[in-house]
Amino acid sequence: MGTETAKRRVTILGSTGSIGKNTIDLISRNREHYEVVALSANSRARTLAAQAIDLGAKFAAVADPGAYAELKDALSGTGIEAAAGPEAVIEAGAREADWTMAAIVGAAGLEPTLAAVRQGRTVALANKECLVCAGELFMKEVARCGTRLLPVDSEHNAIFQVFDAERVQAIDRLILTASGGAFRDLSLEQMKSVTPEQAVAHPNWSMGAKISVDSASMFNKGLEFIEAYHLFGLPADRIEILVHPQSVIHSMVAYIDGSVLAQLGSPDMRTPIAFCLAYPERMAAPVPRLDLAQLGRLDFRAPDAERFPALRIVREALHQGGVVPTAMNAANEVAVAAFLNREIRFLDIPVVVEATMGEIARTSTTGGTLDSLDTVLAVDREARVCAREKTHALAE
Ligand code: NAD
Ligand code: MG
What we know:
The protein is α/β, with parallel strands linked by helices. It is built from 17 helices and 11 strands. It has helices spanning 18-28, 45-55, 68-75, 86-94, 110-117, 129-145, 154-162, 188-191, 196-200, 209-217, 219-232, 270-278, 292-295, 310-320, 324-340, 348-363, 373-395, and strands spanning 8-13, 34-41, 59-62, 81-84, 99-102, 122-125, 148-151, 171-178, 239-243, 249-255, 260-264. Helix 6 (129-145) runs parallel beside helix 11 (219-232), helix 6 packs across helix 15 (324-340) and helix 15 packs across helix 17 (373-395). Residues 14-20, 41-42, 44, 63, 89, 103-105, 108, 126-129, 153, 205, 207-208, 210-211, 269 line the site of nicotinamide-adenine-dinucleotide.
């Protein structure tokens, strides 16, 4: 780690997930540079305990109180502290660390990630839903605490790598690339009957279930659009989406002189995670080397807003602002869970999201920007109740 002699103290929120495991893979190969402070998971106590023992973590937290006995049992005699409940996960984020990977999925990650932000050190952000449901509040806390925020999402990590933060006035626009997801070549008719198994089988990336369904509906690109808006501070009309099926160009920055800078790589999350882990140095990552000659070609096309209404819905949510992006995110989480549970169909997801956004915009008692955590959480709860009613109505 350059001139640093002490080990970097790291915490991983969401260590049992896809991003969490990839982060651990890199840390395990470079144990001399890292010391693990805390790990957290939702309910997989055995996996979490095994990770904590292997990495010599000091603290392990499960969100589900029902998993406490199992965690405590698996960690007995190790000296590793076990805790459970949402408060314990927040504590994992608050334990002193130099670097935190925020890789919980969904708005459930907001409070633990904010706890890490408030340490004023470095937060590697994978949990994009934090920025969608509480963008203004989150970025204000980052600035107030002097926290270094490093984007893990491959598109935002790519932009970060080619974004001249000292000459923002020279930046014309951001181009977010999208694989198009599992259903990029299906007709609307064909999309009517797709199954959860088909939706989670992403053509290029191996990821958690929720983000895989989001990729298939293109809500993922929509959430990333809002994520980019908050991270880089460009107006929404200067953020473009471009379908690029091979996922080799991870995103681009276009400058006013006509230059377009891109970051390329194999579709393996260990590249952006390694970038964040070693920042500002670089570390070796065991990813397949990019072989452009073998690939032969890179393809591009404009996104299809008719087959993927999520793209229009998300722009609309950002445009309306206030409670609407928070409601949209919550409704999408509920709708995706209902689809994975086979309660609603794939094409019902945008229907539930849009109807919830409209209803919450009309009925919410909270106006203007959401500037406190309590209001964000209240809107998130209201929207979940509303979205659940809508999924139940569709399921009947
Ligand atoms: P995942 O489902 O594989 O893992 C999610 C993690 O969050 C698990 O450790 C789980 O135990 C934990 N978790 C879930 N619910 C929780 C709760 N209520 N409280 C506390 N912890 C909880 O998801 P993932 O694919 O690793 O994605 C994590 C985040 O990173 C998401 O926001 C996703 O959009 C983002 N992301 C993922 C990828 C990817 O390649 N997987 C790429 C870019 C961004
Ligand atoms: Mg992404």
